[in-house]
Design a protein that fits this description.
about 130 residues, alpha+beta, Ribosomal Protein S5, domain 2, about 35% helix, about 20% strand
């Protein structure tokens, strides 16, 4: 029986679910190959956990479903899900420490959210109405 690992990653409103199983190093994100994904900077951010993992990434197939949020948030959620999946698949403390040394955001989610708008604040969350006297 082949080993299959499912992990998830979140960033702002973006949620990514990754499935990792033995294979030939093929990476699909929303059923598209990684090499066909949008801007090159986003593509490089998505490749980071795979490049750091080295040979391990060549031995597994990764399939990621991501929805919600913007382009950058989705990229961060995907790289978090992939990195967590690779660590869970290999059960390697060495790989985990390598990811943490490179960038803590690869394994630990960034829990910051945008501030909600308050009642009677016009526009942004901390915006106040301008005084018309003095």
């Amino acid at each position: 029986m082949t080993k299959i690992v499912q992990t998830s990653g979140k960033r702002k409103k973006a949620i990514a679910h990754a499935t990792i199983k033995a294979g030939k190093g093929v990476v699909h994100i929303n059923n598209k190959l990684l090499s066909t994904i949008g801007p090159s900077m986003i593509q490089l951010r998505l490749k980071e956990p795979l490049l750091i993992a080295g040979n391990i990434a060549q031995e597994v197939d990764v399939n990621v479903r991501v929805h919600g949020g913007g382009v950058s948030s989705q990229a961060d959620a995907v790289r978090l899900a992939i990195a967590r999946g690779l660590v869970a698949y290999t059960e390697s403390n060495a790989l985990k420490s390598t990811f943490l040394d490179y960038d803590r955001q690869l394994l630990v989610a960034d829990v910051r959210q945008n501030e909600k708008a308050k009642p009677n604040s016009h526009g942004k969350a901390r915006a106040k109405r301008q005084k018309s006297y003095r």
